[in-house]
């Protein structure tokens, strides 16, 4: 049995979430501390629940569509993006060291960054 299509009002929160994620993803292009791709993947999911047209637009985007398709198709991350992500994380950790943050904060940050980098590097390579 096919699920009933969501009402216009039921789709609105998903559309709002999708656009919020698109905006955050675009901001993330300029700010290395804010990730781009995870927000755009969330936007694709939200648009998939609300607007096939917006989802198609996002997947067809010349810059952001490829990484989203790679992730959805095989959980892959392109090598260039892996390098960029890990380099950004290393620079952030280095900045924290230079700022003289406490050892406790550096350990927590190092563990979080190490876990994130391990996950990123464990993913298959995209096209």
Specify the biggest β-sheet: none
End-to-end span in angstroms? Answer: 37 Å
Number of strands: 0
Q: What order do the SSEs take from the amino end to the carboxyl end, as H and E? A: HHHHHH
Query: Helix/strand/pairing class, anyone?
Result: mainly alpha
What overall form do the CA principal axes indicate? globular
Low-confidence blocks of residues: none
Question: How many domain regions?
Answer: 2
As a percent range, the share of strand residues is: under 5%
C-alpha-based Rg, rounded: 17 Å
Mean pLDDT equals 87
Measured as a percent range, the helix fraction is over 70%
Oligomer class? single chain
Count of helix runs: 6
Short description:
This protein is mainly alpha-helical and 127 residues long.
What this model shows, in words?
The protein has 127 residues and is mostly helical. The protein folds into two domains: 1-75; 76-127. It is built from six helices and no strands. The protein has helices spanning 8-30, 37-48, 52-60, 65-74, 79-98, 103-122. α2 (37-48) packs antiparallel against α3, α2 (37-48) packs across α4 and α5 (79-98) packs antiparallel against α6. The longest helix is centred in the N-terminal third of the chain and has 23 residues, at 8-30. It is globular, with a radius of gyration of 17 Å. The protein starts with 7 loop residues before the first helix and ends in a 5-residue tail after the last helix. The mean pLDDT is 87.
């Amino acid at each position: 049995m096919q699920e009933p299509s969501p009402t216009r009002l039921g789709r609105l929160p998903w559309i709002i979430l999708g656009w919020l994620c698109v905006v955050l993803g675009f901001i993330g292009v300029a700010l290395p501390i804010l990730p781009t791709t995870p927000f755009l993947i969330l936007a694709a999911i939200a648009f998939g629940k609300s607007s096939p047209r917006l989802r198609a637009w996002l997947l067809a985007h010349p810059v952001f569509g490829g990484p989203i398709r790679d992730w959805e198709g095989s959980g892959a991350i392109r090598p260039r993006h892996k390098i960029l992500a890990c380099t950004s994380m290393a620079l952030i950790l280095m900045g924290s060291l230079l700022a003289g943050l406490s050892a406790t904060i550096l350990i927590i940050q190092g563990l979080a960054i190490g876990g994130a980098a391990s996950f990123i590097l464990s993913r298959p390579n995209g096209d």
